[in-house]
Design a protein that fits this description.
Blueprint (H helix, E strand, L loop, with lengths): L6 E6 L27 H8 L2 E7 L3 H4 L9 E2 L3 E2 L16 H8 L5 E6 L5 H6 L3 E4 L19 E6 L2 H11 L7 H4 L22 E5 L8 H16 L3 E5 L3 H8 L5 H16 L11 H10 L1 H4 L5 H7 L8 H25 L4 E5 L4 H7 L3 E8 L5 E7 L5 H15 L6 H4 L1
Parallel strand pairs: 1-2, 1-5, 8-9, 8-10
Antiparallel strand pairs: 3-4, 5-7, 6-7, 6-11, 10-12, 11-12
Helix pairs in contact: 8-13, 9-12, 13-14
């Protein structure tokens, strides 16, 4: 994107922009919040020639406000719809507005954020390409947080080349975000150079089946077809049924919720402590009270996660947090992604839909989603992949190779009219 001006983009409504656009995370409590300065990501976008046209609605507080909230709903913005089936198909993930805007043809590219699945899931359900970068590749400064150890922004686009193009404009070393210092020596000058129509050739890919029971026969038939398509175009396919870390994590499906809950309070309090004095909220307690005082508008689904997080000390010194975070890293890396890549000698791991999200998020490793087709009723279905840290280029190459030989994505009817 650098050197090519006037590229329109929409960013998720938890990303600070120093203009006349609010940054509310979908909450009425922050409806009058206008950031004093750009987030690092917004600054990078503008310096690259992008024009930020607006903010996308999102699942309120990045879907970590409560349990059971409908994806794409916020008290400030209302309900985001999936353009492939409004009120029929789930729009998915908290970056739902960013995804729906791109899928419907309103904007060529958009920025979402992910803690665990909020880029990959809406990419899958809206037939898009989504990239969740290695934590540290993209700065988190000026983004309303959930979890510092997993949060990252990432691009959403209709093709791999556009996603890589947008990623170029987002990455960079930010002295105010220590995680980006780890990216020194790992940043690529141009991620579009990895876009390769022959990107499948010579790759050894591990297809992971441990979460197949989440999907219907029709969806699994697509996943099975993907294996054949990749094999037919030069990739070696390896079946993987037994990643120990996945088995361990699946015993406690919400194993990351403790770590999220512990990190959420200090992270959010830090952000809110710097917002404008006239706003009604400056810490988590204020948000809880505001929601209670405006319960008819703000508590349609409750605020369970806020209440749980507020009960934490905020010190991150509790043994439960330390042990859960250590366990997440061990299962996602040592006996998870790193183990599988080495044990099966594969370049990347391939999962149905966005089921890679949790393990890649816990590890802080990169992942990519790419469309793979549609089931009979028109619902989109895709695949997701992960690899070792800082291997965005490899994932872009594989995904672009698959995209080039299949061209599965079709626009929704609303974008054809």
């Amino acid at each position: 994107m650098r050197g090519y001006p006037f590229i329109p983009v929409i960013v998720k409504d938890n990303i600070d922009t120093a203009d006349m656009m609010h940054t509310s995370a979908g909450s009425l409590a922050l409806k009058d919040h206008y950031a004093a300065k750009d987030s690092f990501v917004a600054k990078q976008l503008r310096e690259s020639g992008a024009i930020i046209l607006g903010k996308a609605n999102m699942t309120e507080w990045a879907n970590f406000m409560t349990k059971g909230m409908r994806n794409g709903y916020s008290s400030r913005g209302g309900q985001v719809m999936n353009p492939y089936g409004p009120n029929i198909f789930d729009v998915s993930g908290s970056s739902s507005g960013s995804a729906a805007a791109v899928a419907s043809g309103m904007i060529p590219v958009a920025v979402g954020t992910e803690t665990s699945g909020s880029v990959l899931s809406p990419a899958n359900m809206n037939s898009l390409v989504g990239i969740k970068p290695t934590v540290g590749l993209v700065s988190r400064s000026g983004i309303i947080p959930i979890m510092f150890s997993q949060d990252t922004a990432g691009p959403l686009a209709r093709c791999v080349a556009d996603a890589a193009y947008l990623l170029n404009a987002m990455v960079g070393i930010d002295e105010t975000d220590v995680a980006t210092l780890l990216a020194r020596g790992n940043l690529q000058e141009d991620y579009t150079k990895f876009v390769n129509p022959a990107g499948l050739k010579g790759k050894r890919l591990g297809f992971v089946s441990q979460m197949n029971d989440r999907y219907s026969e029709a969806q699994l038939a697509i996943f099975e077809r993907v294996k054949g398509e990749m094999r037919d175009h030069g990739a070696e396919v390896v079946e993987i049924h037994d990643i120990p870390g996945i088995e361990e994590l699946m015993k406690r499906p919400n194993s990351s919720s403790s770590a999220m809950s512990y990190e959420f309070k200090p992270a959010l309090n830090r952000y809110l402590s710097k917002v404008e004095p006239h706003l009604p909220v400056h810490n988590m307690v204020d948000v809880i009270c505001f929601n209670q005082q405006n319960s008819e508008q703000c508590l349609r689904y409750g605020q369970v996660h806020f209440i749980e997080a507020q009960a934490r000390s905020g010190s991150l010194s509790e043994s439960e947090y330390i042990e859960d975070r250590k366990r997440d890293l061990y299962c996602s890396r040592d006996t998870g992604i790193d183990w599988a890549l080495a044990e099966y000698k594969v370049d990347a791991l391939v999962f149905p839909a966005s089921s890679v999200a949790a393990i890649a998020a816990k590890a802080g490793y990169p992942s990519i989603a790419v469309p793979a087709g549609y089931i009979a009723n028109g619902e989109p279905f895709g695949i997701s992949m992960t690899a070792a840290a800082w291997q965005e280029g490899l994932l872009i190459e594989i995904a672009s190779g698959y995209e080039a030989v299949t061209h599965h994505r079709k626009p929704p009817k609303c974008a054809q009219e």
